[in-house]
Amino acid sequence: MGGSSETRTVVVTGSASGIGAAIASRLADDGWSVVGIDRSASAHVHAVDLADTGQAAAFAGSLSGVTALVHAAGFMRTAPLGEIDPADGDAMWAVHVRALTIFANALAPQMPPGGRILAIGSRTSAGAGGKSQYAACKAAVTALIRSWAIELAPRGVTANVIAPAATDTGMLSDPGRQGVAPVTPPIGRFIRPEEIAAYAAFILSPDADAITGQELLVCGGASL
Fold first, then answer.
1. CA nearest to 100, candidates 145, 133, 40, 54
2. What is the pTM of this model?
3. Does residue 133 come out as left (phi exceeding 0), alpha (psi in the -120 to 50 range) or beta?
4. If 0-12 CB within 10 Å is exposed, 13-18 middle and 19+ buried, where does residue 36 land?
5. What 3-state DSSP class applies to 35?
6. Which of 51, 65, 95, 124 could cross-link to 135 by cystine, CB 3.0-4.6 Å?
7. Measuring CA to CA, which residue among 14, 12, 10, 154 is closest to residue 73?
8. Block mean pLDDT (10 aa), the chain, length 224
């Protein structure tokens, strides 16, 4: 994948918690150099407000030598028709869609053969009652990824989405869900962040060179 495991660099957004933290940890264990991004800084995370176009663009533009981008940052705001707040949609769009666009636009041109763009989507991208604005953002993420996959394939760079069902993270108890309860998959439990991280590690590996433009469900049977 464009160099030894010691020199591969991956940018992971939303790396302070949930799926992003699990992915960052797994990739670090696998020998990647991880550039973590979240709203607040910590020992291994850079503070970047992805909802701020200027901050996101400035940080993305400062990066070099990046082999892969994993966009895991996101949040959910829900409401049925008649109670939708467009400001919630704008806020989700900024983080889920616009920030992904900013980082991919800055980083994809410099990626070597074997480079990767991976976004964490949601199986709600096909539509979900009470979650229309969130679902629309995730559908847009999939459309971006599929479009970029077409552009990048001749260069040997892939672009994919991992779309989980309800995953055991803080998002399940986020007050912004406004009473839209998560649905337990048929396997009888929520998806574990570590399971998403394992799939992400595979997609970023050379074994996944031929996988691109895909929305890859990890749903525990929820889509059956």
1. 145
2. 0.91
3. alpha
4. buried
5. strand
6. 124
7. 14
8. 63 96 97 95 91 98 98 95 97 98 98 98 92 96 98 98 89 63 87 96 98 95 86
